[in-house]
Amino acid sequence: MPPISQSTYYQRLRDELVAEPRTWLVTGVAGFIGSNLLQELLALGQTVVGLDDFSTGYQANLDEVLSDDLAGTFRFVEGDIRELDACRKACEGVDYVLHQAALASVPRSIDDPLTNTRVNVDGFLNVLTAARDAAVRRVVYASSSAVYGDATEVPQTEERVGHVLSPYAAAKKTNELYAEVFQRTYGLQSVGLRYFNVFGRRQDPDGAYAAVIPRWVSNLLNGEPCDIFGDGETSRDFIYVANAVQANLLAATAHRDVTGEAYNIACGQETSLNELFRMIRLGLTGYQPSVAQQEPVYDSFRPGDIRRSVANISKARRRLGYEPVVTVAEGLGEALEWYARRTRTDYVSVGASVVDRGVSP
Asked: Are the CB atoms for 218 and 230 separated by under 8 Å?
């Protein structure tokens, strides 16, 4: 009998969840990754509790997911993870916690390290405490590639981290330590997912700390400059959000032997910012031909940024059954269409035979 492919492994898990639904808490459910987790879980007929205070998430994200006729059920708790009572309320009757709530920005953490710590460390401790007291089976939490700091080895492997370069990275490294302590001390199973550069639909293009892909898409479509910090040869491992969703569900349900550790979640593919800009610009020409004439604006390097970031994902493949099934190019195709429909009020999608009028977020 031939071995089961990793993508087939995830499909088998999806079939199992449909046959035997569970109850899941998604913190940060109105945010980018949280709303995509909600969509997948509801499509699989699961019961989902969502916790969010709308500090960085949006009601529109929930509305978009809930506008589809999905099989699962959803209960929303409006609350802040810095409040233990809100975390306790959300954890009632939950099997698994998928913790996505965070202030996920290196520059923001440098500007405001106190708020970074209160949300990303104190808030995480509240989630762990509430999950422990509610006898939750497992907590899967969002860590970050930022924990690698100034490590020079490429690709990055889980066992070799450097000195962290920002308060955000320090918070995520602290989270990994606390998760290990809670598992050893209280028996609360946990799995950390070191996300690299996740992108996709419902990622916020606005604000001073917006991620690079949605920000560049918005700027290109609006005729505004796209800033590249440094010479553009800084590289990142970009991962489409569907792959991150897969990793969360696999991590939650895998054998307990995988717990108490952190795993790289990425595509294992290095893309420079110059390459990324060209890919986005080319992809948007079908929506707005004038973007083909736009060039990036180069600025100085930012403090806290690392030069090269690409993951070794062999540990997640081997132990979680994780396999990135959507490539960067495929993910960009879907993401660019989603952003184009929401950045412009009237467009015709050339080559996709889609006509959209007046679509609102």
From this structure: no
